C-alpha cells in the first residue's frame, strides 16, 4: 500500500504545539525581563504565569483525567508536581521552563505519533467521493456511500475505483499498488475482480459492485490496522507495567524528601529543590515512548507496502523468527498447474482420448481438472462429449460415464489393477522433474498417462536468495504433493530441504519439529488450505490476501499481493522495530541512570535537567520513527 496521500497536519497546526510555542515566547520574555533587564516582579511574574497556563493546560489536564478515570499516576503528574514544587520554592523561572519544555516535547511527540498512525488512514482518501452508476442505460453520479451490492458503475480511464466489484465489460490495466505494493498494473477483463481505492488505467470498465462502499476491502484493511494498533507487543506491555509501578514510586520518594524537614529540622528549600529535580530527572518519559512510536511506525509502514501486520505481538515476532516453512502450491509455484505430459497407451486415437478425459474433467472444479480442459482446447478439441454419473472421491480421483465407457482419472497408486508392460516404470522419472502423475482408466484398463506440473513463480528464486542473505536458520518446503515433486520445486527455487506427502496434520507436526529445534518459525501459505499449519506456527503469513477474507482472517501477517516478493520487507520491518525498541530501552535506562544522580548531587541545575530530559525524550521518539525511513529506503532500492 504505497500511495496514500493523507498524513498528519503540519506541526504548526497542532493546537498543543501552538500553545507551547506561545508559552515559550512568554517564558523567554519573562526571563529577559527578570534576568537581563532586572525589572520588578510585577512585570515578569505574569509572563511566567501565562507561560505555565498556555504551555501546560493541555498535558496537565490529560494527567488529571488519567488519574481520575484510570487511577493511574502518569508522567504528566510527575512533571506537574515538579513545576508546582519549583513555584512553591519561588523558582518561577525554573517552573515555567519545566512546563514549557515538557509541553513542547509532548506536542512534538503527539504529532509524531499521529503522523505514524495516520499514514494508513489516508488510504480512505484513495476512493472517490462519487460514482458513475449505470441506470436504464444512462450514467448517474451518486455519492459513493450510496453504492449498494449489485449496482453497475462505470470507471473512466485514470479514475479511482469506488468499491469492490467484478468487471462486466471492458479491458484495462489497474494500478493496485495502493493496496498491494506492486507497481505493475494488473490486467482486468470481464470476470476479473477490482477493488476500492485502486486506479483504472487507459481503458473503460463497467463493474458490478460486490460490496457497499463501507464493506469494501479497503475499509476492512483500515479497520484491521486500527485493531492491530491496539494489540501491544510483549516489550511494550513490560514497559507499561514497569512505568505504572515506577512512576508512583518516584512521586512517593519526592514526597518523602519533603517530609524530611519535618523530622530533622533541615531547610525546606534544600529538600524541596531535591524533590523537584528528582521528579524531573526520574520521570521515565523516554522509556514510556521507547516502544509505542516504533510499533505504530512499523505497522503503518508495513501497511503502506502491502503488508498487513495484525498487532504489536506479531510485529515483534517478525523480528524473532529464525526459520520459515513454505507451502508449495500457490506460494512458491504459480498455483496454476498445466498438462506437460499426455501419453496414450495402445492404438487408441489421441484426440478421441483427450475428448473422453475432458468429458470427465469438465465436471470437476479441481485445479488439475481445469488444467486438462485447457489442454484439450490446445489439442483442437472443440466439442467435448457429455458425461454422466460423475463422482469425485478424495484420493480416488474423479470418474464418470462417457457413453457406455466408465472412465476414471486417478493417482497411479490408487489403481490396483493390471498395468500394461512398462507403463508404470515410465512414471518413475516424472516426479524427479516436478511432474505430478495421473492415470486414465477406461473399463478397468489403463488408457493413458497424464503429467501435470505447477511451475515455480518467476520471483521465487530471487526472494528465497534474499531471505538466505538475511541469515534465517532454515528454509523448508512443506507440501502435500509427492516427495520427489516437493524436492524438485525446492531445488528450483533454491531451498535445500523439501518435505512431501504431508497431510494437514503432518504439516502441523513438521512446524512443531522446526520450532523445537530452531526456535520461532513462520509458515507462509495461501491462508485457506494451510490454515492448520498457519495456526500452529509462531507466525502465520498468508499471501495473496487481497480479495480473500479467509486469508485476512486466518493469518497473523497478510501479504496483500499474490507474491512472496514483499516477504523480506515484512521481516526487515520486524527486525528494524525490534532493534529500535532495544536501543530506546537501553538509551532511556542509561539517561535515567546518569540524570538522577547528577541532579541529586547538584551537578546539574533544574533547568539543565529539564533540557536534557526533554531532549532524551525527543531522541527516543525520533529513533522510534526509523522503521519508516528504513522501509522507504529499501523500497526505493527495490528494482521495478
Instruction: Give the termini separation.
Output: 15 Å
Task: Provide mean pLDDT, rounded.
Answer: 85
Largest sheet entry: 7 strands, mixed
Number of helices: 21
User: What structural category do the secondary elements indicate?
Assistant: alpha+beta
- In terms of DSSP E residues, the strand content is 15-25%
**Which strands sit side by side, in order, in the main sheet?**
10-22-21-20-11-18-19
Give short descriptive properties of this protein.
640 residues; alpha+beta; Calcium-transporting ATPase, cytoplasmic transduction domain A; Rossmann fold; 4 domains; 50% helix; disordered N terminus; disordered C terminus
Helix-strand blueprint:
Blueprint (H helix, E strand, L loop, with lengths): L14 H22 L4 H30 L4 H14 L3 H30 L8 E6 L2 E6 L8 E4 L9 E5 L2 E4 L1 H4 L5 E3 L4 E2 L4 E2 L4 E5 L7 H14 L3 H31 L3 H15 L2 H4 L3 H13 L2 E3 L2 H7 L4 E5 L10 E7 L5 H12 L5 H12 L9 E6 L3 E6 L2 E6 L25 E7 L2 E9 L6 H10 L4 E5 L4 H11 L3 E3 L4 H15 L2 E5 L5 H6 L2 E5 L5 H6 L2 E3 L7 H34 L5 H19 L1 H12 L3
Parallel strand pairs: 11-18, 11-20, 18-19, 20-21, 21-22
Antiparallel strand pairs: 1-2, 1-3, 3-9, 4-7, 4-9, 5-6, 5-8, 10-22, 12-17, 13-14, 14-15, 15-16, 16-17
Amino acid at each position: 500500500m504505497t500511495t496514500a496521500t493523507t498524513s498528519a497536519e503540519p506541526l504548526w497546526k497542532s493546537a498543543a504545539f501552538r500553545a507551547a510555542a506561545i508559552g515559550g515566547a512568554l517564558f523567554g520574555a519573562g526571563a529577559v525581563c527578570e534576568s537581563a533587564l532586572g525589572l520588578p516582579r510585577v512585570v515578569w511574574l505574569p509572563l511566567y504565569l501565562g507561560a505555565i497556563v498556555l504551555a501546560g493546560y493541555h498535558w496537565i489536564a490529560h494527567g488529571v483525567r488519567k488519574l481520575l478515570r484510570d487511577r493511574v499516576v502518569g508522567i504528566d503528574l510527575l512533571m506537574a508536581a515538579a513545576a508546582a514544587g519549583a513555584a512553591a520554592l519561588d523558582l518561577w523561572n525554573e517552573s515555567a521552563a519545566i512546563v514549557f519544555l515538557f509541553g513542547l516535547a509532548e506536542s512534538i511527540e503527539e504529532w509524531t505519533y499521529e503522523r505514524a498512525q495516520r499514514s494508513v488512514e489516508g488510504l480512505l482518501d484513495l476512493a472517490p467521493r462519487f460514482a458513475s452508476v449505470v441506470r436504464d442505460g444512462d450514467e448517474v453520479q451518486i455519492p459513493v456511500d450510496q453504492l449498494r451490492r449489485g449496482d453497475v458503475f462505470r470507471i473512466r480511464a485514470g479514475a479511482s475505483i469506488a468499491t469492490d466489484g467484478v468487471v462486466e465489460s471492458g479491458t484495462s490495466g489497474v494500478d493496485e499498488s495502493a493496496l498491494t505494493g506492486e507497481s505493475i498494473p494488473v490486467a482486468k477483463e470481464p470476470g476479473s475482480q477490482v477493488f476500492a481505492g485502486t486506479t483504472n488505467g487507459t481503458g473503460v470498465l463497467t463493474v458490478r459492485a460486490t460490496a457497499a462502499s463501507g464493506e469494501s476491502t479497503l475499509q476492512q484493511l483500515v479497520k484491521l490496522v486500527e485493531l492491530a494498533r491496539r494489540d501491544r507487543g510483549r516489550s511494550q506491555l513490560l514497559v507499561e507495567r514497569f512505568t505504572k509501578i515506577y512512576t508512583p514510586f518516584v512521586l512517593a520518594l519526592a514526597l518523602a524528601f519533603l517530609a524530611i524537614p519535618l523530622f530533622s529540622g533541615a531547610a525546606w528549600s534544600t529538600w524541596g529543590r531535591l524533590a523537584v529535580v528528582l521528579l524531573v530527572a526520574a520521570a521515565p518519559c523516554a522509556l514510556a515512548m521507547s516502544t509505542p512510536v516504533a510499533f505504530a511506525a512499523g505497522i503503518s509502514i508495513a501497511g503502506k507496502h502491502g503488508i498487513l501486520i495484525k498487532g504489536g505481538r506479531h510485529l515483534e515476532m517478525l523480528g524473532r523468527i529464525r526459520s520459515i516453512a513454505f507451502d508449495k502450491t500457490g506460494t512458491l509455484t504459480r498455483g496454476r498447474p498445466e498438462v506437460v505430459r499426455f501419453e496414450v497407451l495402445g492404438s487408441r486415437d489421441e484426440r478421441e482420448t483427450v475428448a473422453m478425459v475432458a468429458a470427465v474433467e469438465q465436471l470437476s472444479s479441481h485445479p488439475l481438472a481445469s488444467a486438462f480442459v485447457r489442454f484439450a482446447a490446445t489439442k483442437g478439441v472443440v466439442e467435448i462429449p457429455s458425461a454422466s454419473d460423475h463422482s469425485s472421491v478424495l484420493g480416488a480421483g474423479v470418474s464418470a460415464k462417457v457413453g457406455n465407457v466408465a472412465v476414471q482419472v486417478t493417482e497411479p497408486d490408487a489403481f490396483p489393477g493390471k498395468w500394461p508392460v512398462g507403463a508404470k516404470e515410465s512414471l518413475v522419472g516424472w516426479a524427479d522433474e516436478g511432474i505430478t502423475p495421473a492415470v486414465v482408466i477406461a473399463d478397468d484398463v489403463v488408457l493413458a498417462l497424464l503429467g501435470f506440473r505447477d511451475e515455480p513463480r518467476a520471483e521465487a528464486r530471487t526472494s528465497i536468495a534474499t531471505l538466505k542473505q538475511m541469515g534465517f536458520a532454515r528454509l523448508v518446503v512443506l507440501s502435500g504433493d509427492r516427495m520427489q515433486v516437493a524436492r524438485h520445486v525446492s531445488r528450483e527455487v533454491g531451498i535445500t530441504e523439501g518435505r512431501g506427502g504431508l497431510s494437514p496434520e503432518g504439516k502441523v507436526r513438521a512446524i512443531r519439529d522446526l520450532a523445537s529445534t530452531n526456535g520461532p518459525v513462520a509458515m507462509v501459505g495461501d491462508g485457506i488450505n494451510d490454515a492448520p499449519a498457519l495456526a500452529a506456527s509462531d507466525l502465520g503469513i498468508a499471501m495473496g490476501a487481497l480479495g480473500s477474507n479467509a486469508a485476512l482472517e486466518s493469518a497473523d501477517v497478510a501479504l496483500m499481493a499474490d507474491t512472496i516478493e514483499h516477504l523480506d520487507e515484512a521481516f526487515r520491518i520486524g527486525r528494524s522495530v525490534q532493534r529500535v525498541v532495544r536501543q530506546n530501552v537501553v538509551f532511556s535506562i542509561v539517561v535515567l541512570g546518569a540524570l538522577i544522580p547528577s541532579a541529586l548531587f547538584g551537578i546539574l541545575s533544574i533547568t539543565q535537567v529539564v533540557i536534557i530530559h526533554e531532549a532524551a525524550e525527543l531522541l527516543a521518539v525520533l529513533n522510534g520513527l526509523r522503521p519508516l525511513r528504513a522501509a522507504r529506503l529499501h523500497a526505493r532500492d527495490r528494482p521495478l
